[in-house]
Specification:
Layout lengths: L1 E5 L6 H13 L4 E4 L6 H11 L4 E4 L2 E2 L5 H15 L3 E6 L3 H7 L7 H19 L7 E2 L4 E2 L18 E4 L3 H10 L2 E3 L7 H18 L8 E4 L9 H18 L7 H5 L3 H12 L12 H7 L8 H9 L5 E3 L9 H12 L3
Parallel strand pairs: 1-2, 1-11, 2-3, 3-5, 4-5, 5-8, 8-9, 9-10, 10-11
Antiparallel strand pairs: 6-7
Helix pairs in contact: 1-2, 2-3, 3-5, 5-6, 6-7, 12-13
Length: about 350
């Protein structure tokens, strides 16, 4: 089992290097770099520069405000610089952010993302000398690459591309065109991955003539862990607070619907619109956390995660606490997870 760490969205560029070295030292396979406040590509460079074996993923980069040519250039440089340790994770974001936050026109996200990934692959093939640049679609058109602007071949040109997504068509698209999928943490329970996500990935893979097993699936689920039961209780309350906020967003309701909790999402949305934020956390019942989030102290959590995700996913996110006092326990847990199928 591959094991990935993540980092706070508020971590600054100056802090990333030391954090990435700590992640590498503890034996993680990779670091998932978010993009919420700071630029995901700059953070990725800082992490790659500070390490020698760690894989670094954007998780996930907001795609549509950036031209595929811009992303291709940055990804190519990061892959060359790191000797093949970069993975490009892309996300569509929601219309409100694309239009209001990024001032970018909105278009059908699945069709646009299909062309986005196709554009990137066409650009990479051109730079590697495999084919002339000739991509023409409804949303993107790339047909011009003078030698002066061509960075030329690199040693590891097949840059993995993962998609972040929850809704059916985007999940199927990952099966069709991407290396794999990273579902949102609100939709990563084993039941949802098995009964919904894997079937959608297989549908997309079949459309492209791919084997369903070739599409990688990485769980970004919250994991509640620590050194004591008291820490577990505190972590549960943090997750309860996150869920109270996150499940007020309709895009994250598929898991609620699967478990028969659809009314909860609608109630949370209504209270958020009425600015009743303080009333939302208590609506997240214990049974919801128990069904959606694995929990256990460090000695127990590898076995718990094996029961939940063994044979179902290709990798998972495992939390790294802010305080390094218990890094030895984290390192042992990561090693135990590596031994899982």
């Amino acid at each position: 089992m591959k094991v990935y760490a993540t980092m706070s969205q508020r971590m600054t560029l100056a802090e990333v290097g030391a954090y990435a070295r700590r992640v590498e030292h503890l034996g993680y396979d990779g670091l998932l770099v978010p993009e919420g406040i700071h630029d995901g590509l700059l953070l990725s460079f800082a992490a790659l520069q500070a390490t020698t074996t760690l894989n670094v993923w954007t998780c996930v980069l907001v795609a549509f405000p950036r031209s595929p040519m811009i992303i291709a250039g940055a990804a190519w440089d990061l892959q060359a610089f790191s000797g093949g340790r970069f993975t490009l994770g892309l996300g569509a974001q929601v219309k409100g952010n694309i239009v209001g936050r990024y001032s970018t026109p909105w278009a059908a996200p699945v069709a646009r993302m299909r062309e986005y990934v196709g554009s990137l692959r066409a650009i990479f093939d051109c730079w590697q000398g495999r084919a002339p640049l000739a991509f023409e679609g409804e949303h993107y058109r790339f047909t011009r690459m003078q030698p002066f602007f061509n960075p030329g071949p690199i040693a590891h040109p097949d840059i993995p591309i993962y998609l972040g997504g929850v809704e059916p068509a985007m999940t199927a698209l990952a099966g069709e065109v991407a290396t794999g999928l990273m579902p949102h943490p609100t939709n990563c329970s084993p039941r949802f991955l098995r009964e919904v996500v894997r079937l959608r990935l297989a549908k997309g893979a079949s459309k492209a003539g791919r084997r369903a097993e070739s599409v990688q699936l990485v769980s970004l689920s919250f994991v509640i862990t620590g050194t004591s039961r008291e820490e577990i209780v505190r972590e549960r309350e943090e997750v309860r607070q996150y869920f109270g906020f996150l499940y007020s967003t309709p895009a994250y309701w598929p898991s609620l619907d699967l478990y028969g909790w659809g009314d909860l999402g609608r109630d949370l949305l209504r209270r958020s619109k009425e600015n009743r934020w303080g009333e939302m956390t208590p609506l997240i019942r214990d049974e919801i956390i128990d069904q959606l989030v694995p929990a256990g102290v460090y000695e127990e959590i590898p076995a718990v995660l094996n029961d939940w995700y063994g044979g179902l996913v290709d990798g998972l996110k495992f939390p790294l606490p802010e305080d390094p006092a218990h890094d030895a326990e984290v390192e042992r847990a990561v090693a135990a997870l590596h031994a899982l199928p």
